[in-house]
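Human: My hope is that you can spare some time for a protein that puzzles me. I am handing you a single protein, as its sequence and its fold in token form. Could you go through the record with me and say what the backbone is doing? Take your time, and here it is.
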Amino acid sequence: MSTVAQIMTKRPKSTGPKTSIAGAAKAMRSARIGSLFVKKGKQLVGIVTDTDIVRRAVATGKPLGKLTVEKIMTTPICTIESNQSVDEAQDMMGDLGVRHLGVTKNGEITGVISVRDVLSCYKRYAQSKIVAEVPYSEPKISQD
């Protein structure tokens, strides 16, 4: 099975803590991603996800243009070491109830992994097993 480093997104996108929710949502849409790390100066202080936007902003009826990501972000960032397996990432996501994990190497975040990344990995793995099975042969036809 693959390691987290093999399937993670390198150089994940980030935004500032004062970015509006609407601005963060637009950035995620244009980049076709489901999360942004929140960066204050050079330090990562949290993560804001599409789920955070829906549950902590839209569902509450708060004005999205004025509300900032620092008010709804998840902090601290849940992380996993880059040398851990995809199975371990899946277990951690399930245990913590999150859909994104920061990926660390020597304590520094170097990427991000999402549930979608895990599913894609399992899909590729399953497809490789189907191809590796016994080659297809024509059925034998017999007469009664």
